[in-house]
User: Fold this.
Amino acid sequence: MLEQSKPPVRPGTERLHYLLATPFRYPPLRHGSRFGTRWEPSLFYGGTSVPVTLCEGAYYRFYFWHDNTAGPASPVLQTQHTLFAFRYRTQRGVRLQREPFTTFQALIRDPVSYQSSQRLGAAMRADDVEAFEYPSARDRSGGVNVALFSPAALATDRPMNPQPCLCQTRAEQVEFSVGREVHTFRLGDFLIDGRLPFPAA
Assistant:
């Protein structure tokens, strides 16, 4: 019954572990994503390092916290996640953090609007790009993310090196505990003109 209530499995993901298949299965959020509108198939997004991955995660924890019109149920929201690695490989890839795209970094990384990056995503999709790397809009240290249009770009069918990750979200701080390491992010790191930008096209 529960499986029947879920969206259909996307073709090409049948061989994949659910952690790798799920991003392709569910529709985008109401605002779409950085490189895809809400009417296009979902992308698989990830970071090329632990710090940039957690930075992106922290932004979305703040987003869900402050987007809750009813307010948080408690001063601290504790959630459990799984941090894992995966390999990707394709002959149809793009590195948006390199030339000739460096001229357009402000549009690609725009922290407020997805309008330009979604148009770029549509163009890459139309050109049959399977995977691409791009500079993070949230990580100020210059981290790089990766996105996959197609599950064919995954070179592994199971997550690698899975690690439990405990997250504690507060109004002004998000903290991830991974093994013995603690990664802390503050709301001020993500503010633009004093406000937390909500994803919007």
Summary: The longest helix spans residues 50-66. The chain is about 20% helix and 25% strand. The chain has one domain: 3-190.
